[in-house]
Design brief:
Layout (H helix, E strand, L loop, with lengths): L10 E5 L4 H12 L3 E6 L18 E5 L14 E4 L6 H6 L1 H22 L2 E7 L26 H20 L4 E6 L2 E2 L10 H10 L4 E4 L5 E3 L1 E2 H13 L8 E3 L4 E3 H11 L6 E4 L14 H7 L7 H20 L7 H12 L1
Parallel strand pairs: 1-2, 1-4, 2-3, 4-5, 5-6, 6-11, 7-10, 8-13
Antiparallel strand pairs: 9-12
Helix pairs in contact: 1-6, 3-4, 3-10, 5-7, 5-9
The chain binds uridine-5'-diphosphate.
Length: 344
């Protein structure tokens, strides 16, 4: 078969393509026969996430921080912007760089999209709703965010990125779509990611104390990664442009204590739960209203937590030794130099 004659074949850039979500998206796009350019700084992304694609003729890797101007000399049809640390400990490790990644980085990708006439999908977040006072969260809720707190670098950065995206859309410069991604989990999360699903699984597998912050009564809604990737691709390709942000997540809502009990029931472990202080501005409840995604995209998640959790546990059990051998995310100073590069 002459693969280049496939009519729907596109060249698609995935910024953050070596990360947890990005690498699954690269796999899915490659599976559809597209050319994929993966751009990643490896701040939290990992080369081994895309190792199976490494020598494929339709796959290319570029190591770059999106805070620096991006030049690609080939035509590009679509850009997914998934480039940003997403776990609270990682995005708070260098908050200024996190903010710049969302604002300057998204700006650079929007310029790239404009030059290439490419469509851009921005990975936004349920964090734009902050600690929400409406439940479940619909897209027309403006949110309840502390703009000076330790989560602001991520929440406000992503909110500013949404503002940039919708201004670009209104100006006619770029065909932009915005997905608000709720808590997502699955294989290839880092063992040191710091978020609840990976923390509890890794702690249980290591027979270490399982940390619950606060009382464990706070809730989250957990979406399996394959469902999320299908939602991103549906939003990128839907016609016409929805011209509105779209929530993507699984509405199944669990307390953190319930999640811990599920993990304990699924992992043979001697671990027990320890309670630690609740982080500042930790949202108390979170559940997506996905009416818009159902209506516009015909999308809804298929994998319940009772299925996705064992699959994720099995992956961690098989990969934990390798994860432990990994270096931690690069030090803050490297990211700061990048910012100075932008400023200079
Ligand atoms: N959490 C916890 N123990 C952990 C990690 C997180 O109890 O080891 C809590 C955290 O305080 C929050 C919830 O789990 O209430 C989800 O946290 P996560 O970092 O996974 O995501 P986010 O807060 O960004 O939704």
């Amino acid at each position: 078969m002459k693969i280049d004659t496939i009519p729907h074949r596109k060249t698609i850039l995935v910024a953050g393509g070596a990360g947890f979500l990005g690498s699954h998206l690269c796999d899915a796009l490659m599976g559809e026969g597209h050319h994929v350019i993966c751009l990643d700084s490896f701040l939290t992304g990992r080369p081994q996430n895309t190792l199976p694609l490494k020598n494929h003729p339709r796959f290319e890797m570029i190591e770059q921080d999106i805070c620096l101007p991006i030049e690609i000399d080939r035509p590009i049809d679509q850009i997914y912007n998934l480039a940003c640390p997403a776990s609270p400990p990682h995005y708070q490790a260098d908050p200024i760089h996190t903010m710049m990644t969302s604002v300057a980085g998204t700006g650079n990708l929007l310029r790239l999209a404009e030059r290439h006439g490419a469509r851009l999908l921005q990975a936004s977040t349920s964090e734009v709703y902050g600690d929400p006072q409406e439940h479940p969260q619909r897209e027309n809720y403006w949110g309840h965010v502390n703009c000076t707190g330790p989560r602001a670098c991520y929440d406000e950065g992503k909110r500013a990125a949404e503002a940039l995206c919708f201004d670009e859309l209104r100006s006619g410069a770029v065909d932009v779509r915005v997905a608000r991604i709720f808590n997502t989990y699955g294989p290839r999360m880092r063992a040191d990611d710091g978020r609840i699903v990976s923390n509890l699984i890794v702690q249980a597998l290591r027979n270490a104390p399982m940390t619950i912050y606060g009382t464990g009564t706070q809730t989250r809604s957990f979406c399996y990664v394959s469902d999320l990737v299908a939602g991103l691709m549906a939003l990128m390709n839907v016609e016409p442009n929805p011209e509105m942000p779209v929530n993507l997540g699984n509405p199944g809502e669990f307390t953190i204590a319930e999640l811990a009990e599920m993990v304990i029931a699924m992992v043979p472990t001697t671990s027990s739960i320890v309670y630690e202080p609740l982080p500042i501005d930790d949202p108390q409840r979170r559940r997506p209203d996905i009416t818009r995604a159902r209506t516009i995209l015909g999308w809804e998640p298929k994998v319940p937590l009772a299925e996705g959790l064992p699959a994720t546990i099995a992956w961690f059990a098989a990969n934990l030794a390798e994860s432990e051998a990994l270096p931690p995310p690069p030090a803050t100073r490297r990211a700061r130099r990048t910012i100075e590069g932008v400023a200079g």
